[in-house]
Amino acid sequence: MKNRILFSILIIAFCSGACNDEKELQKSIYVEDSTNPGLPKYSELGYNTFGAYYDREAFTSSEIVPVKVVVTNGETAFIFNGRKGESNEAALTFKISDFEAQQYSDLISLNGIMLDLTDATHSVFIKNGAIEEQVQIINGMFKFNKVRNVIVDLEQAEIILSGTFEFQALVDGQPITVSDGRFDVGVANDNFYKY
Amino acid sequence: MKKILTTFCICLVSSVSWAQDERLRLIGLETGIDAIGGAVVECDCIRGETATYYGDVTKNLKGMMYKMYGGAKVELHSRNNRFGLSAGLRFTRMNSSLGKSNEWDNPSDFFYFMTNQTETSIEYLKVKEINQTSDYLGIPLSLAWFPFKQKIFTLYFRGGLEFSYRLRTETSVSFVDNAMDSNSDEVIDKLNDPQTMVSIISTSAGVKIGRGSKTAFKIEIGPSFFLNQGTSSLVEATAGFGTQLNIQIPF
Fold first, then answer.
1. Is pLDDT of B121 > 50?
2. What is the per-residue DSSP string for chain B?
3. Alpha-carbon gap: A138 to the closest alpha carbon of chain B (Å)
4. d(CA A55, CA A59)
5. Given an 8 Å threshold on Cβ–Cβ distance, is B122 in contact with A153?
6. Does A2 sit within 8 Å of B124, measured CB to CB?
7. Which of A92, B37, B58, B241 is the most exposed place for a label (fewest CB within 10 A)?
8. What is the pLDDT of residues B128-165, one digit of tens each?
9. Across the interface, which of B38, B60, B122 has its CB nearest the CB of A21?
10. CA distance to partner chain A, nearest, from residue B41 (Å)
11. Which of B50, B65, B114 sits opposite A23 (nearest CB)?
12. Which of A15, A28, A146 sits opposite B64 (nearest CB)?
């Protein structure tokens, strides 16, 4: 940087920002949606956030790894880890049985795909605390609005999955509604599993 | 803004009318430096976040800015020597930088700069730092007030306005991988050009060293405030603080 010394001799140095933590594309950027308080604003830039209203209560990403993609037994599961309300750990899992990714870059083929969650090839699991159960979908959809490769310095770094979801389901015989769901998450080797 | 300008013009006209007989007139050179504060420009193309979950996109990026200037000006004093009105020509070089690294920090620090996005991909480059230098030619107008009788050391206060025209701008990008240097233009093209005109209002306090009718040195410090936005492509300048040196000769 030119004239660095000049910076150091200035008695009063104004600057914006101070810290110098390591930066990674994997970190979350939470921009609140003003029209849907408590949820992250919809984005398609890999901000590593997701959110939805679970019976009008915000369920949002709060983990360092907000999504894990697990491919096993020919099924691909998208596991969204977060919190419901103030502090309740929760997870939402969407399983697609007719799609098997061999590696994370294969997820690009989901671009623009909308899943009808009532279809028998798809299933949804909700985890509240330590208890996870498959829910009975009444109606709903899960759409990959945009799936994009992230290229850093001309090399592939990750895949960004961006989209929306909503559904109504029965949990323990009680109807629940998950609405205004949105996700914008990055998937790379560190959160893609196949076994 | 118009009010300020009108007030200034009134003062200027008044000073001309004062100059009917012998009054102290000074011609001199000036130089100064200001540190400038402001926020990092907001742009989706900059990805420099950190682990802070509820942060904003550009948090922890550092935007730094300063200006250096030099020029010549003429100062006309009132009959009682309590006021001095000056105008001149000033060359200003404004430097701004954006990055996570500096001389004291880890030089491997970088941020991501998005150069392109399509339906199927987003392309980033790892950038250590972006530097921008802009040169301006401006007209500084100011009014000085000498509340005390002038002696060898005389305290004074000054308020001023400056209107500058941007002559040129040069932007450079430092990448983590030198092999990416050929992509500099892709980064620069994403940045907004600085505004062509810059208006600054300033105030300062200073000390004049020298007898009234002799050569005098002046040193002053004080804040300045930017009246328009977009001075830099990297930092949204709002205010500055700096010092100015003058040497003035009666004529």
1. yes
2. -HHHHHHHHHHHHHHHHHTTS---EEEEEEEEEEEEEEEEPP-TTEE---S-TT--TTTT-EEEEEEEEEEEEEEEE-TTSSEEEEEEEEEEEEEEEEES--TTS-TT--EEEEEEE-SSEEEEEEEEEEEEEEEEEEEEEEEEE--S---SEEEEEEEEEEEEEEEEEEEEEEESSGGGGGGHHHHHHHSPPPPSEEEEEEEEEEEEES-TTS-EEEEEEEEEEESSS-S-SSEEEEEEEEEEEEEEEE-
3. 32
4. 10
5. no
6. no
7. B241
8. 899 999 999 999 999 999 998 878 899 999 999 999 99
9. B60
10. 10
11. B50
12. A15
| Whether the predicted pLDDT of B79 surpasses 90 | no
Across the interface, whether the CB atoms of B62 and A8 are under 8 A apart is answered no
3-state SS track over B26-76: EEEEEEEEEEEEEEECCCCCEECCCCCCCCCCCCCCEEEEEEEEEEEEEEE
Q: What share of chain A is helix, strand, coil (3-state, %, to 5)?
A: 10, 55, 40
Q: What's the whole-model pTM score?
A: 0.76
CB contact under 8 A, B124 and A153: yes
Nearest to A29 among B57, B114, B117 (CB): B57
CA separation for the pair B139, A131 (Å, rounded): 72
Q: Looking at residues A40-56, what average pLDDT do you find?
A: 91
β-sheet bridge partners, residue B243: B33, B221
The single residue listed with the structure tokens 């009132």 is B78
Nearest-CA distance from A177 to chain B in Å?
27
| Encoded tokens for B14 | 């008044």
Residue numbers in A near B186 (CB within 8 A): none
* Local structure of A110: helix, strand or coil: helix
> Cβ of B123 under 8 Å from any chain A Cβ?
yes
According to the model, what pLDDT value does residue B50 have? 36
Both tokens of residue A139? Answer: 């109606």
